[in-house]
Design brief:
By secondary structure, the protein is α/β, with parallel strands linked by helices. The chain has two domains: 100 residues, Arc Repressor Mutant, subunit A; 157 residues, Rossmann fold (3-Layer(aba) Sandwich). 61% of the residues lie in helices and 10% in strands. It contains twelve helices and five strands. A five-stranded parallel beta sheet has the order 2-1-3-4-5, with helices on both faces. Strand 1, helix 7 and strand 2 form a beta-alpha-beta unit. The longest helix is centred in the first third of the chain and has 27 residues. It comes from Steroidobacter gossypii. This is MurR/RpiR family transcriptional regulator. InterPro entries: Homeodomain-like_sf, HTH_RpiR, RpiR-like, RpiR-like_SIS, SIS_dom, SIS_dom_sf, WH-like_DNA-bd_sf. Keywords: DNA-binding, Transcription, Transcription regulation.
């Protein structure tokens, strides 16, 4: 190993029980090295990347703990539930880490700036994507952004008839294959608006024709787990964009709106 690789290895051995809380960037910052050094170190050990290495270390720590601490006080059912919770948490962490790595900070900054400058932001998604679109539209509204949300392509078609240059259409589509959403995107661009697609990290028509893209990486062989990982990684990605937009006057507007909402929920305040 090189000197840098030995530093990484020593840190992991000394802090194995804390490693699950470290992203590759946080680990790099702690050691004052580049993030790429962490990734290359992981690959040198035979892992696809840092998330796989972190997951393997976490499993080893868990096995070691099980060997040292007797769990006779817990029922088998309670132990199973704890194991399922830990496994799900690790899977979500890996999905969020992989998603973060494929969306570079510059791209997120550009998208946040594009949304901040927009006169109007239109958000649409179908099915489960509709829930993410609605939640994000509500957050933009709290920042003082004029937003239009629909989960029906027909209604959105009518709404974008008033779109102008500089407006933004955010299209949420996990697979990016819905013909109706692709048609909406083309119509919006004809009005000189900007389109931001939110899809999986795959080749798809929606992503190919968007002006900017937010990408999600979340994979699992279990059909009931994969949607959970996608929604978790998607939410974390959108949260990053939202936080980037919270500055200056927008942050003041957000705090004011949250205060108004709190008064509505609790009139005694």
């Amino acid at each position: 190993m090189s000197a840098i690789e030995r530093r990484i290895a020593d840190f992991m051995l000394d802090n194995a029980h804390l490693l699950r809380d470290y992203s590759s960037q946080q680990l790099a910052d702690a050691l004052q090295i580049s993030q790429s050094s962490v990734v290359k170190f992981s690959q040198k050990l035979g892992f696809k990347g840092y998330p796989d290495l972190k997951y393997s270390v976490g499993e080893a720590v868990a096995r070691a703990s099980d060997g040292q601490v007797k769990t006779t006080a817990r029922s088998p059912r309670a132990a199973t539930r704890e194991s399922l919770a830990e496994t799900l948490w690790q899977s979500k962490s890996r999905a969020e880490e992989e998603t973060r790595l494929i969306n570079d900070p510059e791209t997120l900054g550009e998208i946040a700036a594009l949304l901040s400058r927009a006169g109007k932001v239109y958000c649409i998604g179908l099915g489960d994507d509709g829930s993410a679109a609605q939640t994000f539209a509500q957050r933009l509204a709290l920042l003082g952004t004029f937003t239009v949300h629909h989960d029906d392509p027909v209604r959105m078609t009518a709404s974008i008839s008033s779109a102008e240059r500089g407006d933004v259409l955010m299209v949420f589509s996990e697979q990016g294959q819905q013909a109706a959403l692709n048609q909406l995107s083309r119509q919006f661009r004809e009005r000189h608006g900007k389109v931001i697609s939110v899809t999986r990290h795959t080749s798809n028509p929606l992503r190919a024709h968007a002006d900017a893209t937010l990408l999600v990486s979340a994979h699992d062989e279990r059909s009931h787990i994969q949607p959970l990982l996608y929604q978790s990684a998607l939410q974390h990605l959108l949260d990053q964009v939202f936080v980037l937009m919270c500055d200056g006057d927008r942050l003041e507007q957000l705090n004011t709106n949250l205060e108004h909402i709190q008064h509505l929920l609790d009139p005694k305040l």
